[in-house]
Amino acid sequence: ATIWRRVVELRQSDADVALRHAAAWYFREDQQAAAQSVRQVFARMATQYPIELGVRMALKPLLLPAQIQRWVERPLAAVARWQLLH
Could you read off the pLDDT of 23-76 as tens digits, one per residue? Predict the structure, then answer.
């Protein structure tokens, strides 16, 4: 449960909220265009942002044993990438 909360925090960051509000204001006449713009930004971010590094940084404060941390990094990175895109 703690790991899942840390992954969800990636999606609920201040930058995410600011981007959504800016797009909603800019495209205030066309909400579909706002949603499409946000999706495009997150699609680009998913290819450019080092998600694996972000997952490692999110797991570090949990002080998991090294073997468990290595075991969960890759699946969590996939979940984080999916979460950013949807």
Answer: 777 777 787 887 787 778 777 776 777 888 888 888 888 888 999 988 999 998
Q: Is the Cβ–Cβ distance between 24 and 84 less than 8 Å?
A: no
From CA 39, how far away is CA 33, in angstroms rounded? 10
d(CA 12, CA 16): 6
Report yes or no: 82 and 57 within 8 Å, Cβ to Cβ. Answer: no
Residue 11: per-residue pLDDT: 61
Q: Which residues are CB-neighbours of 59 under 8 A, at least 6 positions away?
A: 3, 6, 69, 72, 73, 76
